Fold this protein.
Amino acid sequence: MGCGGAPEPDALEAQAQSLAWPSGSSRTVVSRRVVSLNGVTFQAAPGFEHFRAAGAPDLALHNVRIAEVDAPAVREALVVMAAGQKISSSGHSSGVTGQASNWDASCNSVSCPNVTLDGRSLAMKLSALGLFPSGRTYLSVINDANFDHLFDSDTKQRLVNGFAGWLQAQVRPETRAIYLAGSSRGGCLMMRVAQALRANTALDGINVYVSSFDGVCRNSQGELGTFDSKVNNPVRPWGTFYGGWATNMTAQFPRRHRLHIFHVVGGQEVAPATGIRAFTAYNGTTPPSTGTNLDWGWYKQTWVKWQHKEIGNPYTDPSASEQAQAVADTVDAHLTWLGGLL
């Protein structure tokens, strides 16, 4: 904002409209459990064997549910998007995957039929825009990754290994791009999966793109290199303490060939007095007390004023008067970034 002060409302509206991408069509899909339950017996679902092979507990894997929206034989691009962590017994809506808050109402021990994906979501907008080849792009949405913030580090690593193994099994000789997107804990998961992909030299010919929406990693475990150094949000609302746990992102991705990451961060504490908040990258040897927007070529980060839930779903949580700007700063900003790279 600087010396010129805050933009006028008309300017904000124009900025929002300038980033507006058209909605896609809503889709109804089946979300399958990666491990099904037959009485008291767990078994890997067809096509999801990598999860159980990675060794995470069956009870944890039973709650992992994935909808394969498009699964063509020819796969020039792979697109995988993850919602945030499911809280308690309630579902949650997601502006990334497009699922509604009651998406899991129809779930049984094998699958969740009739899950509707909102056409305004990142997944459905991207599908309609055709930034990746139509009819030759594999698209899955992870409705529930069960990547629980409170799980121990070993369980989390086994889950990451399962997701990475499953995703790499979708790669075909013609695959040239992988796009990962996730909000909250889903954002942290997609970042960690990207680490696994970029560490695999067999995938060096594939471009990896990652979108994180206020991605949350557990600093007390050093997840994604986060630690107890909070970087304040430079555009945080007055009277708030928004900020992110610092991580040396360059150290987290020593192999950055064909890697592109965009992280939109607000840094509101997810629940009061828990210390659960998003990560933030920093440059140099010591994190700054207050952050700035970053663009290192391979890594871009933008600070926003929005609450954690507003970043995760800008269509339902901001006030009606602010929804257009919230969408512009989140879902549409990621589409603009991705479109500029493709």
Summary: The chain has a mean pLDDT of 93. The radius of gyration is 19 Å.
